[in-house]
Amino acid sequence: LIKSKIKVNIYNMSYPPPGGYGYPPIPAHYPIAPQSTLDAYPPQPAHGGYASGGYNTVPMHNPYPQVAGMPMPGGPQYNQPYSFASTTYAVSAALNFQQNSQAYPQQTGYPAQQSTGFQQPTYPQQPAYPQQPTYPQQPTYPQQPTYPQQPTYPQQPTNPQQIAGSQPNNTQSSYTQQSNYQEQQQSYIQTKTQTTAEIPKEPATQGTVKDFPSFKPQQDAEDLRKAMKGFGTDEKAVIQIIGTRSNAQRQRIKLEFATMFGKNLVKELMSELSGNFEKTVIALLTPPDEFDASELYTSMKGVGTDEKALIEILCTRTNEQIRAASSAFKRLYKEDLEKWILSETSGHFRRLLVSLVQGSRNENDALNHQKAVEDAQALYKAGEARWGTDESRFNVILADRSFPQLRLVFEEYRKISKKTLDAAIQSEMSGDLKDGMLAIVKCAQDRPKYFAERLYHSMKGLGTDDKTLIRIMVSRSEIDMVQIKASFKSSYGKTLASFISDDCSGDYKKLLLQICGQ
Fold first, then answer.
1. How many Å apart are CA 249 and CA 242, to the nearest integer?
2. CB atoms closer than 10 angstroms to residue 354
3. Domain C-terminal end among 333, 360, 387
4. Is 390 exposed, middle or buried, given 0-12, 13-18 or 19+ CB atoms closer than 10 A?
5. How many CB atoms neighbour CB 274 within 10 A?
6. What's this model's pTM, rounded to 2 decimal places?
7. Fewest C-beta in 10 Å: which of 75, 193, 207, 477?
8. How confident is the model at residue 365 (pLDDT cuts 50, 70, 90)?
9. Shared domain check, 478 and 513
10. What domain count does the chain have?
11. What is the secondary structure of 481-498 as a DSSP string?
C-alpha cells in the first residue's frame, strides 16, 4: 500500500507546473499535498508564527502536543516541514502563500512589520557622517638649545668599609676620577673578548730592482740595437740595460724599439741569445701578468704537470695578481685557466687550486679574534681530533682567510693542539695536497722565507732547477727580494749570491747576480 501511494504521489506531481514559472506559485497549478497521518509542527500563533489564515489553501496537520518547557517552534523558517506520512517528500505548503497573507504578529521590542507577505521594509537612508573638522596645524617645535658641555665627573668618595665576611685585602681605596672614555677602554686586540681590530698591514718589503734614475728609453733602445748589430752580441750591454731597469721601464723600451726600428725587441733578442741567459732576459721583458700566465701554461702543457709551480704561483700571489694572470692566460692562449686546472689535477688538490684561482681571498678583513678561535677549533676537529681528515674544512679556511687572520688562527691552534698547524698537516695529509696546504701556511707566516726555501732547494744538490730559479728571481726582484736574501742568509748560513755563483755560470750567472743586487 505504501509503495502504491509513493507511485501515485510521484505521478501526480508534475514539473514544471502547467501555469509556468514564477513566484509566488498559483495554488491551482500544484497538487494539494495528501493528508498526512503523522502530525507535523504547524505554526503556533502564540509563539510568533503565522496566523491561521496563512494556510487557508493547505490542509493543516494536527500538531504534536506541546512538551512542557519547550515552546513550539515559530517563525517562517520552521513552517516548511516535509510530510513523511506516505514517505514522499512533499514541498512545504509555505510555497502557496498568497501575497495578501496576513502579516506576522508584532513582536515585543521589534518595529511593526508590513502587511504584504514577505516583503521587508526598506531601511531608511542613513544620514551621511558630518564632515570632520581638520586638525589645527600644529606649531613647529622650537629649536632645542644645544646641551652645555658636561663637566668631568667629580672625585668619587672612597668605597664604604666592607662588611664582615667580605674578602680580605679586596677593598678599594677610592674610585679613580673619570677621564677620557677611550683611554678607559682596553684594546680589543689585547683581550680575549675582542672580536675585531683594525686591518693589519703586511710588513714592508723592498725589491732589488727599482726604477732607473734619469731613464731615457730611446737611448736604451738605441744601445740595445748596437749590442745586437753585426757579428756576435754585446751581452754585457744587454745585462746592464735589462738587469737594471724596472719592468715598466722595460715595456717602454720595447715600445721605443718598435717605433724607432720597426722590429720586435723580444724576437730580436731571442735570435741573438740562447740558453738560460735568453730565458732570463725574455722573462724580464715580459709583463708580470703575462709571465705568470706563461709559467702556468708551461707547467700544465704536454705530458705531466708541474704541481710545484702551480702551488708556488697560486698560493703566493695576491687576488689582483691572480686575476690578472687569469685574464692574461685567456688573452694569450684562448683558454680558461680554471678549466685547464680542472683537467690537469684531481681530488682535493684540484679543489684547493680552483679555490685559489678565483682570487677571492679576504685580504681586507679586519682581524677577528673570536673567528680565529672558531677556525682553530674547526681545523682541530677536522684533523687531529678525528679518524681520517676532513680536507674540505682545511680548504675553506686556508683558501679564504687573509694571511694576518690566518696567523691568528695558527696561534689559537697551537693553544688547542699543543703543536703547530704545519706539523699537523705534515702528519694528516700527503702528496700535492700537503704541499699546497703547507705553502699557504708558510706564506701566511713568512712569505720571503718561503721563497728563500724554494730558492735553496732549486740549487741544492746535483743539478739546478733553473726554471724555478729564474721564475722566483724575476717575479720577486721588484717586490721582496731584499727580505728573501736576508731570510736565505739566516736560514742557511750563506748568501743567496754565493749560492748563485757556485751553481750557475757565464752571462746567466751575471744577470742573476745583477737582479740579486750584487
1. 9
2. 16
3. 360
4. middle
5. 11
6. 0.63
7. 193
8. confident
9. yes
10. 4
11. HHHHHHHHHHHHSS-HHH
